[in-house]
Specification:
The structure holds three protein chains of three kinds. By secondary structure, chain A is an all-alpha fold. In chain A, about 75% of the residues lie in helices and about 0% in strands. Chain A has a domain at about 75-255: MetI-like (MetI-like fold, Orthogonal Bundle). Chain A contains twelve helices and no strands. Chain B is about 40% helix and about 20% strand. The N and C termini of chain B lie far apart (about 65 Å). The longest helix of chain B has 17 residues, at about 235-250. Chain B has two domains: about 30-120 and about 225-270, D-Maltodextrin-Binding Protein, domain 2; about 125-220, Periplasmic binding protein-like II (D-Maltodextrin-Binding Protein, domain 2), CATH 3.40.190. Chain B has a five-stranded mixed beta sheet, sandwiched between helices. A three-stranded parallel beta sheet of chain B has the order 4-1-5. In chain B, strands 2-3 form a two-stranded antiparallel ribbon. By secondary structure, chain B is α/β, with parallel strands linked by helices. Chain C is an all-alpha fold. Chain C is built from twelve helices and no strands. Chain C has helices spanning about 5-10, 15-40, 50, 60-90, 95-110, 115-130, 135-160, 160-170, 175-190, 190-205, 215-230, 230-270. In chain C, helix 4 (about 60-90) packs antiparallel against helix 5 (about 95-110) and helix 11 (about 215-230) packs antiparallel against helix 12. Classes of the chains: A mainly alpha, B alpha/beta, C mainly alpha. Chains A and C meet through helix 1, helix 4, helix 5, helix 10 and helix 11 of A and helix 2, helix 5, helix 6, helix 8 and helix 10 of C.
Amino acid sequence: MIPATRQIPNRGLQTGRRRAALTRLDAVLVALLAAGVGYIAWRVHAQGGRAWEWEVLGQYLLREDGRPGLLLQGLFTTIRLTCWSALIALVLGALAGLARTSPSLYLRLVGGTYVELCRNLPPLVLIFLCYFFLADQIAPSIGLQDSLRTAPDAVKTVAGVLFGRLDQVDAFVTAAITLGLYEGAYVAEIVRGGIRSVDAGQWEAGRAQGFTRFGLMTYIIMPQAVRNMIPPLAGQIISTIKDSAIVSVISIQELTFQGMQLMATTYLTMEVWTCVALLYFVLTFSCSMGAARLEYRLRRRYSV
Amino acid sequence: MYRIIATLIFCLALSAGLPPAQSHAAEKSVLDQVMERGVLRVGFDTFVPWAMKDKNGEYIGFEIDVARRVAADMGVEVEFVPTKWSGIIPALLTGKFDVIIGGMGIQPGRNLKVNFSAPYEFSGMSMVASLAAAPGLSSLADFNKPEIVLSAKTGATSVAAAKKHMPLATVRMFDDEAQALQEVLNGRANAMVASAPFPEQQAIRNPDKLYLPLGGDTFTREPIGFAVRKGDHDFLNFLNNWVLVAESEGWLAERYAYWFKTMDWETLIK
Amino acid sequence: MILTFRSLRCSCGTLCSVAAYALTMLLVVWAVLRGAESMGYNWQWYRIPRFIFLPDGSPGPLLQGAGITLLVSGLGFVGAAVLALGTALLRLSDSVVGQALARGYLELIRNTPLLVQIFFIYFVLAPAVDLGRMSSAVLALALFEGAYASEIIRAGILGIPRGQWEGALSLGMKRSSVYRQVILPQALRNVLPPLTSQGVSLVKDSALVSTIAIYDLTMHGQAIIAETFLSFEIWFVVAAIYLVFTLTLSSLARLLEKRSSSHLEDSCTG
C-alpha cells in the first residue's frame, strides 16, 4: 500500500500556498513562552545565582598548549566508542538478523533469544552485568592492553588514535563489546525488516531459477535488502552516540563521565552540563544531517 | 540437525572433562605478576583531595603520591584504573587491577572479601550541613531524627557511620561525593557525611551556604589500608612492610600534611 | 564437521530444533558458571531471597524498588502522553511559533542522551525552580519519551484517510471537534501498539534515574551490592524483574498489534 503523501490536515479542503500570517495560537504560545522563561530567570536570580564562569570551561576544551582539553578528549572517546561498537553491532546484528529469517527453527530460536534479551533489558543493567563478567573473561584473553605495553612506538601511536588512552584499553574494549551487543539487537531487527521488505516475487523467481538459498541471498535478496536498510541503520548509529553516555557509569572516560568529573572539581553545574549537551547535540545533529543527505541520494538513485 | 546436536553434546562433554580453569587464587603472587609485567595497576576513585584530576588530566592527590611511591619502590611503572567506588571491590576481585589505593577504610565486612594491609593513614568522619535547610544544629543527636536527610557516597564508610550514629535519619547515596555535596548546597539534604577534611574544605569554600555542625570534629576514627585479593601472602607482606618503612621515614606524615592540612595544591586543579 | 546451510535445515521436525536450542542455552549457562568459577567468585544464592521478601512476608528492598520503578514509569508515561499529543498537534497546526517550538523541542531532546538530560534537569533546572527529586526524574522521562511518542502520534494522525477529514468538515464541524471526535479516537487506536513499545522503552530508561539517587530497582540493587558484594546474584535478579515488566508490556504490544490488524481486515472485507 502506498503510504499517504504529505497530507496537511489543517489545510482541509483548501489548496494553494500556506499563509505565513500569525494566528491567535501564535500569540498565546509566545505569551506562554515569555512567561516561562521570565519565571525561570527570576527564580535563578532570586536564589542569589552566581555569575556564570564560562571562561573556566575554555581551558577544559582546549588547553594553552593547543592540545585538546578534558571535554574534547571525552568527545573523542565517545566518537571512538561509537565507531567500534557500531562495527561490532553491525556484525552481530547481521548474523542475528539472518538467523531470525532463516528457515531453520533452531537458528530462529537462538537469534530470537539474543534479540529479545538485549531489547528487553535496561541498558544500564546490561552494562553492569557485562562489565563485571565479560571484562574478566574476554579482555584478558584478547590481552590488548598488555601487548600494547610492550609494542613499538609506531604501533602505540596508531593504537592511541584507535583506542584512546593506552592505560584504559581493556575497559574501553569491554565497553565497546557491551555496547555492540546491545545495539546489535536493534540492528538485527533492522536487518530482519530489510530482508522482509524485499518483494516475495524475488524469492519465488530466484527459486524458480534454481538458486540455492545461499546464492539467492547473496546475489538477489541482500543487495536489495541492504539498500532498504541503510537509512534505519544510520539512525541506529546515531542512537549509539547517545547510548554511549551510559558507559560513564563504569568509569569509561567518555564525554558524560568527563562532565561529571568536571562538575566534581569545579562545581560549575550549569556551564558544564550546557557544554556537554551542546557537544552531543552538535555531534548527533551533524550525523543526522549527513544521514538525511545519504537517504535523499539513495532514494534518488534507486527509486523506481 | 543431527550434526548440530552432536557438536553441542561433544562440546559439553569436552569441557566437562577439562580441568577447572585456573582460578586467580591458584596463580602466582601478584608481586611476581607485577614484576614480570613491569606495571602496578592501581584501582581508585576520585575523591578530593585523596585523588583527583589536575588541569592537564593527570591524576594528583595523597593516594596518587602513595601509589607512585609504592610502584617506584617496586621498580615498576604505575597505571591508574579509575573505578566507581561502589563497584571497586568487585572490580578488584575480578582482576581489573592489582591493589586498591584509594583511601579504603578497613572494615570487617570488607575484610571478608579482601585482605587489608596495615593502616597507612587514619581518617575520621565529619559532617557539613546546610545553613538554609538545617541551621544551628551542633551535635549528632540533633541530626538523629526521621525528618533529617543525609547525603553520602555510595559504598563509602560514611554510609555505615551515618547509619550507625544517626539511625533515624534517611541516608541518600550518590556515586560521586560532588553530587552528594550538591544535594546539601541545594538544600535538598540537611547534611553530608564524609571523611575529614572534605567537609571542612567545602565549608571554607562555601561559607554562605554551609557550616560545620560538629565544629570540625570527627565522630569516628578509622584505619585506611591497601586492599588486595585474598590468598596472596607475599604481596601483603610487601605492602605491610612498605607502610612501616614509609611511616618511620616520616614520608607519610609529610604527604598527609601537604594534602590535608594545606590548600596549596588548589592551583593545580583550578 | 562442516555445518552447511543444507544441514541446518531440520529433517526431524521442531522437536530436534527445540532440543538443540535447549542444549545451546545449557552450554551458555554452563560457560557463564565456569567463567565465574575461574574468577574465584563464590556464589551465595541463599542470601538472595531475603532481599526479595522480608521474613515477615512484606516486600523486601528489591520489590520496593520495583514498585518505585513502576511508579516513575507510570507517571512518566502519563506526562509523555500529554506532551506527545500536544507536540503532535502543534506540529500539525497553522501556528508558525507552535511548529517552531515543537521542532525545537524534538530536535533538542532527540539529539542529546537521556543521562545528560537527567543531569541537566536535576542539577541545573531543579534547584532554580525548586523541583523535587522525583519530579525531576518524571519530568526528564516525560520530556524524553514524549518526543519519540509525538512522532508516533503524528504518524498515526497523518495516517487517517483524507476522506474522514472531508466528511467531517463537510458536516460543518469545527477543526477542534473533528480532531476530538473523529480523528484522534481512530488515530490513537491505531498507534496503541507502537505506543506500548514506547512504554517498554520507558521502563528500561527509568533505570537511569538511579543516577540521581532515586531508590528504584537499579538503585536498590547497587545499594545492596555495595554492602554485601553479591554482584552477580543481585544483577541477575534485577535483570529478571525488569524482564518480567518489559516482556509483559512487549507481549501486550504484540497482542494489540494482532488485534488491530485483524480488526482492519474485518473492516476491509465487511
